[in-house]
Design goal:
Elements (H helix, E strand, L loop, with lengths): L10 H55 L6 E6 L2 E11 L5 E10 L5 E10 L11
Antiparallel strand pairs: 1-2, 2-3, 3-4
């Protein structure tokens, strides 16, 4: 057979190149989608930590000034509504209690941030001893 003088790509070569290109673009789209989901989850957790700290500071401040202690509430931050609650338990250290704030998104049951501190004072009635 005599060699032909080729001046272009064959149909098979074009189809193979398009297949490889489509696989690369598809993989890139999946990667970008996962990245945006992870970024949104990290933002929710960061905002929830701020809410947890605010709730804990509010509770401890109320205890120290003798104001009414609010044990649950909600806060809007970053366009999201977070629900928080304060949990109190006896501490292993006599004369202290463990005060923990638990935060979740308004439409979810899963706690996404917690923050705890020790506070001087009597443990709440019915509280269990810390392990």
């Amino acid at each position: 057979m005599a060699a032909r003088n080729q001046k272009g790509l064959t149909l098979i070569e074009v189809l193979v190149a398009l297949t490889v290109l489509s696989l690369a673009v598809g993989s890139l789209l999946v990667l970008l989608s996962q990245h945006s989901r992870n970024a949104a989850a990290l933002q929710d957790r960061a905002l929830a930590r701020i809410v947890a700290e605010n709730a804990l500071v509010g509770y401890v401040g109320a205890v120290r000034t003798g104001d009414a202690k609010i044990l649950e509430g909600e806060q809007e931050i970053g366009g999201r509504i977070f629900v928080w609650e304060i949990d109190r338990q006896r501490s292993a250290i006599k004369g202290f209690e463990v005060v923990e704030s638990l935060v979740r998104l308004e439409d979810r049951e899963q706690v996404i941030a917690t923050m705890a501190t020790l506070e001087r004072g009597a443990a709440p009635e019915g509280a269990v001893d810390a392990p």
